[in-house]
């Protein structure tokens, strides 16, 4: 018998074994005992070696094995030999203490995998013996002690015999199963072995006639995702894999998942661990708040985005009371315009950011009223200057007071009473709703408000009671920015199907705008949420997986999982959310497409890697996923480190093209470098003036080219923090001299072919540069050489 099994299939495994089997043989690590981290070496982070122990411990083991090969011809060694190499001048007592420290670290991180424990009990009920056969530097006695300490005496008592490679000087692949057969005095057909290593746990025993099952812990996508989560953890928190392990308490539930639908998988494997841990933290924060104030904290999840966090809180099964409030940034802002000062503060916050209809809507002004205030120009800037200087401001204050009446009615309707302690729960980032609503709730209901958020990064201190599961207590400004860079993805996954709340009836019932998303988006989101809820229910039933599986562990693991999704999304995940649109929740009916891969590819071709810094996209890593990991690694590194990377840093590997620049008085010809961008494209930058005509003599070098873009781009400010200029690019009409169209943007070039670009338009304000993006297809010299050879 030689089969492969997944975790859900382990329960029925003994029903499939041949009747000759009288012994259940098990691998230990990653079969019976799992570690609460991504790789076995993560455990070594607990060793007290200055600067981090992982690398030194790995090297010590490698060198100890090499030395054993030299001495005896065998590679298997004891843990004592490893620590003697790790501490070359240590005494026997010091080495023993060091070994004990590693043993304690293993105990802290190891836990039994429940399906395998159940299999052991079932084997005993059927009268089978149970043995462990493990490739490990622990001896048999040590390994049994480890099982007892990590899994409990009851599990250890199920094991009849322990065989280890260090005791016998042989690994399983080198022949350990023969001593096992000899010691047990049985024929190979009497043993059924289960383990996770294809060579050691299946090929090796099967070669001797032993029945075997290869335990496939994870499917390939899950295995890749877990590895990338550990990589994201290292980039997010540099102490990871130095003095801290890459923790992954969600591993067993990922292994046990049987559903393969990509939307469900995204919810179960990624979103579920994130919000189950968040829900546990929220529960504890509510308890602490209640203790501090001496009265119960009323927990209210802010709709729409608080919907899925609320559902995950439900899976905890606590007796804490909770509810929901439908308060958006729009409604909180409208209800908080209590005086002219508040109106002026809103204008100051939003100046230059919004369209006229949006900023007018925030102030509860009808479109015709906003246009009248803007005056003849109709410009938003004119509206912003005029609105606080006119009677419109008082009109806004009066309307806000009536709006606030309806909002307060909603708050009361949802169960908040006079003088309550209210704990708002939301995804967060800035906690804008709390900022706006606190003065109103205090003035109208004497309510104390605290905000608890998944991610909190306030640009300006508010002085309010706010905390984030991820906030400045755990990560610096750059790391928090990286975690929140594509937060719209999480918002769309967490939200309700309902449209944004825009107002309330007199009795407090919310009024929602009509959802603008497609039905398919709602169906996909439902599946994602179903997966997340399924994870929450299973995680609550499972409980902690190891002694190291504490609140801090789950927060770090969740942050790594979020960072991995934000920057290293996998193909199935991008496809799952590819058609999502995003409602900015500002009272307008516009919905933005979450992904536009073609636009990002164009940006890369036209600007190269510098495009990553100069673009604002909803989910840029998702758009770049098909371009390979290197792009998103670069993006994550730039954002995570707030790196001062300039456009000039990417200029390498250039090619020269002759360019004629002329005005009414003079002309000159110079060679200008074009530098590679992406997909074989190059970008050339030429000075631009309102009196300068440019001719790029592209035919001198190429017989065929693709023209991607010809435009005038604003010259950016030198400061790294200034970002890209808000001035738009200006399309540059050009004349194709000697370029014969082949198809679309592909041209055949005569030797004298040139792109003729007229001067920068007079309407352009500020300094611009002429940018030409093209792809060389056939180099003239190469074509001539081929023709000559033919």
The number of helical elements comes to 30
- Mean of residue pLDDT values: 91
Radius of gyration: 33 Å
First-last Cα distance: 63 Å
Please report the total strand number as a whole number.
Answer: 26
Q: Identify low-pLDDT runs.
A: 718-725
The major beta sheet can be summarized as: 7 strands, antiparallel, barrel
| Adjacency order of strands in the biggest sheet | 18-19-20-26-22-25-21
Shape: globular
Determine the structural class based on helices, strands and strand pairing: alpha/beta
User: Which percent range describes the beta-strand content?
Assistant: 15-25%
Helix content: 40-55%
Give descriptors for this structure.
790 residues, alpha/beta, seven-stranded antiparallel beta barrel, globular
Would you kindly provide a written description of the structure presented here, covering whatever features stand out?
There is one protein chain. This protein is α/β, with parallel strands linked by helices. Among the domains are: 595-649, no CATH class; 651-789, no CATH class. The chain has 30 helices and 26 strands. The strands form six sheets. Strands 18-19-20-26-22-25-21 form a seven-stranded antiparallel β-barrel. A six-stranded parallel β-sheet has the order 1-8-7-2-5-6, with helices on both faces. The protein has a five-stranded parallel β-sheet with strand order 10-9-11-12-13, sandwiched between helices. A hairpin with a 7-residue loop joins β16 and β17 (591-593).
């Amino acid at each position: 018998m030689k089969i492969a099994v997944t975790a859900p299939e382990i329960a029925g495994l003994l029903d499939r074994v041949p009747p000759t089997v009288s012994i259940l043989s098990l691998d230990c690590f990653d079969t019976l005992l799992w570690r609460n981290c991504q790789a076995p070496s993560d455990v070594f982070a607990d060793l007290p070696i200055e600067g981090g122990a992982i690398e030194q411990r790995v090297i010590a083991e490698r060198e100890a094995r090499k030395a054993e090969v030299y001495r005896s011809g065998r590679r298997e060694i004891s843990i004592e030999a490893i620590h003697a190499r790790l501490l070359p001048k240590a005494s026997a007592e010091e080495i023993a203490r060091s070994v004990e420290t590693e043993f304690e670290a293993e105990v802290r991180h190891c836990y039994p995998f429940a399906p395998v424990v159940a299999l052991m009990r079932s084997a005993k009920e059927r009268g089978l013996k149970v043995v462990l056969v493990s490739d490990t530097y622990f001896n048999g006695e040590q390994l049994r002690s480890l099982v007892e300490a990590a899994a409990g005496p009851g599990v250890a008592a199920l094991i009849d015999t322990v065989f280890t490679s260090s005791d016998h000087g042989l690994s399983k692949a080198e022949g350990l199963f023969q001593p096992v057969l000899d010691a047990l005095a049985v024929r190979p057909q009497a043993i059924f072995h289960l383990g996770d290593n294809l060579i050691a746990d299946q090929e090796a025993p099967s070669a001797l006639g032993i029945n075997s099952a290869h335990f496939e812990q994870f499917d390939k996508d899950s295995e890749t995702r877990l590895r990338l989560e550990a990589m994201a953890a290292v980039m997010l928190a540099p102490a990871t894999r130095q003095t801290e392990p890459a923790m992954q308490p969600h591993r067993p539930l990922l292994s046990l998942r049987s559903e393969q639908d990509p939307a469900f998988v995204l919810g179960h494997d990624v979103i579920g661990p994130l919000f189950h841990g968040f829900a546990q933290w929220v529960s504890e924060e509510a308890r602490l708040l209640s203790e501090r104030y001496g009265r119960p904290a009323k927990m209210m999840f802010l709709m729409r985005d608080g919907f899925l966090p609320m559902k995950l809180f439900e899976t905890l099964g606590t007796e804490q009371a909770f509810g929901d409030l439908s308060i958006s940034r729009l409604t909180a802002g409208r209800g908080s315009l209590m005086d002219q000062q508040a109106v002026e503060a809103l204008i100051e916050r939003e100046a230059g950011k919004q369209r006229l209809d949006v900023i007018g809507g925030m102030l509860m002004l009808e479109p015709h009223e906003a246009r009248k205030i803007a005056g003849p120009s109709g410009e938003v800037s004119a509206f912003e200057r005029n609105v606080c200087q006119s009677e419109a401001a008082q009109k806004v204050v009066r309307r806000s007071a009536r709006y606030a009446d309806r909002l307060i009615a909603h708050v009361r309707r949802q169960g908040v009473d006079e003088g309550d302690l209210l704990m708002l729960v939301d995804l967060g980032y800035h906690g804008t709703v709390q900022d706006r609503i606190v003065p109103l709730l205090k003035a109208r209901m004497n309510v104390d408000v605290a905000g608890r958020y998944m991610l909190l990064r306030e640009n300006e201190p508010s002085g309010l009671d706010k905390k984030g599961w991820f906030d400045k207590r755990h990560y610096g400004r750059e790391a928090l920015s990286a975690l929140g860079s594509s937060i719209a993805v999480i918002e769309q996954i967490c939200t309700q199907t309902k449209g944004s709340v825009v107002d309330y009836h007199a009795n407090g019932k919310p009024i929602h705008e009509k959802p603008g998303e497609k039905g398919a988006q709602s169906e996909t989101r439902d599946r994602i949420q179903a997966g997340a809820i399924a994870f929450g229910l299973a995680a609550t039933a499972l409980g902690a997986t190891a002694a190291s599986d504490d609140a801090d562990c789950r927060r770090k693991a969740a942050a790594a999982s979020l960072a991995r999704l934000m920057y290293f999304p996998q193909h199935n995940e991008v496809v799952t959310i590819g058609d999502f649109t995003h409602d900015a929740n500002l009272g307008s009916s516009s919905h933005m497409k979450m992904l536009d891969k073609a636009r990002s590819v164009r940006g890369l071709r036209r600007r190269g890697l510098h495009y990553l810094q100069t673009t604002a996209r909803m989910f840029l890593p998702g758009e770049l996923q098909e371009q390979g990991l290197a792009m998103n690694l670069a993006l994550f590194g730039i954002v995570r480190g707030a790196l001062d990377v300039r456009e000039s840093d990417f200029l390498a590997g250039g090619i020269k093209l002759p360019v004629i620049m002329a005005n009414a008085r003079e002309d000159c010809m110079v060679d200008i470098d074009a530098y590679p961008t992406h997909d074989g494209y190059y970008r050339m930058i030429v000075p631009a003036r309102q009196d300068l005509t440019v001719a790029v003599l592209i035919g001198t070098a190429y017989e065929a080219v693709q023209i991607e873009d010809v435009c005038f781009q604003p010259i950016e400010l030198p400061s790294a923090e200034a970002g890209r200029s808000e001035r738009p690019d200006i399309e540059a009409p050009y004349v194709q001299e000697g370029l014969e169209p082949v198809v679309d943007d592909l041209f055949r070039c005569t030797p004298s072919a040139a792109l003729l670009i007229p001067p920068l338009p007079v309407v352009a304000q500020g300094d611009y540069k002429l940018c030409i993006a093209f792809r060389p297809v056939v180099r003239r010299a190469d074509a001539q050489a081929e023709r000559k050879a033919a």
